[in-house]
Design brief:
Shape: elongated
Number of helices: 5
Distance between the termini: 53 Å
């Protein structure tokens, strides 16, 4: 089998369209080095998303800036992960 270039996973798609079975495709993907498998997996998962919402990125930036400001001006109290985890587990237990 020909080897895939680390810069392009498109040979997967071309060959798949030419009759490679899903199992063969999966097996070939699993032969890739971890970094290439990760990139391929990311591309496949990203392809499942719908079109991006142009306003979403701006909304997240605004939300992050708001939260940073709250921390800086002291209007929110930070807690440790240990305390946050304990609160989360307590809430989950009360819902059972």
């Amino acid at each position: 089998m020909p080897q895939l270039s680390s810069s392009d996973c498109s040979p997967f798609l071309v060959r798949y369209n030419q009759g490679v079975t899903k199992k063969e495709l999966r097996d070939r993907a699993l032969e890739l080095p971890p970094d290439e498998r990760a990139r391929l997996a990311h591309e496949i998962i990203s392809s499942l998303d719908g079109p991006s919402d142009d306003g979403a990125s701006a909304a997240w930036v605004s939300e992050i800036e708001r939260r940073v400001q709250e921390v800086q001006d002291g209007s929110v109290k930070l807690v440790t992960w240990k305390e946050a985890r304990a609160r989360i587990l307590k809430r989950l237990a009360s819902k059972r």
